[in-house]
Structure formats: structure tokens, C-alpha cells
Predict the 3D structure of the following.
Amino acid sequence: INDNATKEVRLIIVSASDRIAEELANIIEILKSWNYGELKKCFQHIMNAMILIAF
């Protein structure tokens, strides 16, 4: 196993997880402000980050 490849995959997963955490925090703020147009964008970003982790 190429160690650099393993590190790279870990980095992708960590950055995607950070992105999900960030978007979840955004969702909480959006729910407080009742801005549902923005909520849709956050869910799209979370889905993209989850797809990145899956592959």
C-alpha cells in the first residue's frame, strides 16, 4: 500500500467531514432565521461531501 495514497484518502475524508460539520452548523443558524432557500443549498453541500467520502 502506498502510504501517500492512504494519507491523501484520509485527508479527503477529514476535509469532507469538516465540511459536513460546518454545513450542519449553518443549517442550525438557518433554521433559527427561517431562511429555507439557504437550507436547500446546505443540504446539497452535505450530500456532495458525503458522496466524496463514499467514493
In short: The two ends are 18 Å apart (CA to CA).
